[in-house]
Amino acid sequence: MAGEIYDNQGRGDAAWSWPPIHPEGRKFGLIAVAVSLFFLSPWIDIEIIGWPLLLLSLGVFAFFRDPERVVPQAENAIVAPADGLVSLITEVEPPEEMVADDGSGNPGLSPGPVTRISIFMSVFDVHINRAPVAGTIRRLVYIPGKFMNADLDKASEENERQHILIERGDGVAIAFTQIAGLVARRIVPFVKPGDTVAKGQRVGLIRFGSRVDVYLPAGTDPKVLIGQSVIAGETVLAELGTQGLIEGISQ
């Protein structure tokens, strides 16, 4: 019927609803609620601690929210793997772990400078990370490290991090890195080498503030700007093989 509004699953009138909480976060939220209720109980009754903890438990649930996303299906689109702010766009050498022969027989990235887009996630952003392209997980490399501010450039080389390499069906490889931050203390993968993923599929999360770096293939320029907010699984960071830097004005 003309004029009707449908949600992205065709279920009738669109309406706001609280996004579901990812199972990984439910236990933390329930623990926070239990502790707050303990301090608010009649036999303890320490409200000065209980009420702030109860508010904190709501924040924990909000941190692990997992909203649905509408993923662009253009074949050459590379979508953002994380919600957050584009904090850096720079030319760098790809991570050594994504270039060197890992003995699996699967090729890594080619050596030579590539464009890296860094997305900083504050504690207020959704922290579920998604695949920037469809393909097969060829490498998943965890590296222990420091927990300095993830907004710093050197965090890419010194912080705890996890590299993920996805090979598309046409052989093009896209790498991105989950980086723990000042507060983040755990990188949780949902995939393993050999898994096939769809574009925008959930591949992991980083607990409590962090950053994700995306390494664009040679000959591909970004379609986002520093300071731009992006949405995981929805915002197009770049289109494979498309060059020509964009310009914008903050408004």
UniProtKB/TrEMBL annotation:
Q: Which reaction does it catalyse?
A: a 1,2-diacyl-sn-glycero-3-phospho-L-serine + H(+) = a 1,2-diacyl-sn-glycero-3-phosphoethanolamine + CO2
GO CC terms: plasma membrane
A single BP term in Gene Ontology: phosphatidylethanolamine biosynthetic process
Q: Transferase as a keyword?
A: no
- EC number, as in UniProt: 4.1.1.65
Feature type site, description Cleavage (non-hydrolytic): 209-210
Q: Subunit details for this protein? A: Heterodimer of a large membrane-associated beta subunit and a small pyruvoyl-containing alpha subunit.
Query: What name appears for this protein in its UniProt entry?
Result: Phosphatidylserine decarboxylase proenzyme
Annotated organism of origin: Erythrobacter litoralis
